[in-house]
């Protein structure tokens, strides 16, 4: 193994931050110094339209004066967090607000700091809840094979293979995967006679193979984000709900990437479960909860699940928490963000701007370098023929003043929900231009 040679960089020019997702691209990394609306600015004074904001789920855009003021006001008024013996007005109000946005059975919220922590808490809750009900054998968690649920050890065990980093193991036992609801031949760009998206029949076979009596929960993203913007066809999530009910399994919706408007509904599960009058049993949220302004995550559970823990004498509650989870300042930021999302009608805005972007980008499917263009609301994926092509296009648009993130071969177009019609048009034009400029043989 050759160690990375750092001797050539002068000590002042060294970036001493360990960036574990891409340690060797330091030369290309921008240093951002300010932000406003849908734009960020680097230390050379260059401004960029930020279409990667979905990574933070930065719904209301950057440096929104009302959110900045709410943070300032709360930090100067009361600096504390939410632990067993104390609570604060913003944390209590936020828990009420979240309950008000969700269907009735989802009522009680546990706060933490990151999406990964929310995953960990949700999985603990699911397993312990079965135990409370005398089913200690139900410990397995099933998740989509291409899902992403975080970077902590339990979360990676539930996450897609490329993120599992087996060298960091042993990973905990008790995880199994469900086929991702996408067509294998569409995904590989092959010709086919019809889509072959896995659904209820395949999932039930996988549940039966794993042994339903061993399964605690199914954990899924309503729209897969990091795994490549995969939108399950209508009805798929509802059929998963039915399967969970049939086999006594809890359904956990990971709304870390999709929650609070990103897909054109307040929550991603609403596209499918809502109209059928169904809901998940537990939902996890983070990122969009504060629009990216502060670290905060939430696990919201059915009333009866909370009640079972609250009165369980043996376990004495969940015994779980994080020092800064539910920090008053983060909760104040979240309340300000939710006010803006509702007042400025950003959820329907995400739906219409998303349609505009999808229509503008759809013709790129004709290009040999592009496998697919898909998405829901302002979570859009342009799947290129290779990772290298995606990375090249991301670099090319950056030079033209637009930031887009590539997850593997998929360019993820996910701007703040406040993006204007003109900004969306400009962003789509720059991306289309960069793709059309690829040499004609690319991707064949
Ligand atoms: N779940 C989903 C769907 C995510 O997109 C992410 C983050 N990309 C996480 C969980 C983990 O969140 P965090 O990075 O805050 O730990």
TrEMBL record:
PROSITE patterns: AA_TRANSFER_CLASS_3. GO terms for molecular function: transaminase activity. The keyword Ribosomal protein does not apply. It holds the Pfam family Aminotran_3. Signal peptide: none annotated. InterPro entries: Aminotrans_3 (IPR005814), Aminotrans_3_PPA_site (IPR049704), PyrdxlP-dep_Trfase (IPR015424), PyrdxlP-dep_Trfase_major (IPR015421), PyrdxlP-dep_Trfase_small (IPR015422). The keyword Lipoprotein does not apply. Keywords: Aminotransferase, Pyridoxal phosphate, Transferase. It comes from the Bacteria. PANTHER family: AMINOTRANSFERASE (PTHR43094), AMINOTRANSFERASE CLASS-III (PTHR43094:SF1). Belongs to the class-III pyridoxal-phosphate-dependent aminotransferase family. This is Aspartate aminotransferase family protein. It comes from Streptomyces xanthochromogenes.
């Amino acid at each position: 193994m050759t160690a990375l040679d750092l001797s050539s960089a002068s000590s002042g020019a060294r970036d001493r931050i360990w960036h574990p997702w891409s340690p060797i691209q330091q030369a290309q990394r921008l240093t951002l110094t300010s932000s406003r609306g849908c734009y960020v600015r680097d230390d050379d004074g260059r401004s960029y339209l930020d279409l990667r904001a979905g990574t933070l789920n930065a719904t209301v855009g950057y440096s929104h004066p009302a959110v900045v003021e709410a943070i300032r006001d709360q930090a100067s008024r009361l600096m504390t967090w939410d632990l067993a013996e104390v609570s604060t007005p913003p944390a209590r109000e936020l828990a009420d607000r979240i309950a008000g946005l969700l269907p009735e059975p989802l009522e009680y919220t546990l706060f933490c700091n990151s999406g990964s922590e929310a995953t960990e808490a949700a999985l603990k809750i699911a397993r312990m809840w079965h135990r409370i009900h005398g089913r200690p054998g139900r410990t397995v968690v099933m998740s989509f094979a291409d899902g992403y649920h975080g970077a902590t050890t339990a979360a990676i065990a539930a996450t897609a293979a490329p993120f599992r980093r087996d060298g960091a193991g042993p990973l905990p036992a008790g995880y199994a995967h469900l086929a991702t609801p996408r067509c294998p031949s569409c995904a590989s760009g092959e010709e086919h006679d019809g889509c072959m998206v896995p659904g209820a029949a395949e999932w039930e076979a996988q549940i039966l193979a794993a042994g339903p009596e061993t399964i605690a929960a199914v954990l899924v993203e309503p729209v897969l984000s990091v795994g490549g913007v995969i939108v399950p066809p209508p009805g798929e999530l509802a059929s998963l709900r039915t399967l969970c009910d049939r086999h006594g399994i809890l359904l956990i919706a990971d709304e870390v990437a999709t929650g609070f408007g990103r897909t054109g509904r307040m929550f991603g599960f609403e596209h499918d479960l809502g109209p059928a009058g169904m809901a998940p049993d537990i939902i996890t949220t983070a990122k969009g909860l504060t629009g990216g302004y502060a670290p905060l995550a939430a696990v919201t559970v059915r009333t009866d699940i909370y009640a079972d823990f609250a009165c369980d004498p043996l376990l004495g509650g969940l015994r779980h928490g994080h020092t800064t989870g539910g920090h008053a300042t983060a909760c104040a930021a979240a309340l300000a963000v939710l006010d803006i999302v509702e007042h400025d009608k950003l959820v329907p805005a995400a739906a219409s701007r998303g349609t505009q972007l999808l229509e503008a980008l759809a013709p790129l499917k004709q290009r040999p370098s592009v496998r697919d263009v898909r998405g829901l609301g302002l979570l859009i994926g342009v799947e290129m023929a290779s990772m290298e092509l995606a990375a090249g296009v991301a670099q090319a648009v950056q030079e033209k003043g637009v930031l887009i993130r590539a997850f593997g071969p998929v360019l993820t177009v996910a701007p703040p929900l406040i993006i204007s019609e003109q900004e969306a048009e400009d962003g789509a034009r720059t991306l289309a231009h960069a793709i059309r400029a690829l040499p004609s043989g690319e991707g064949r």
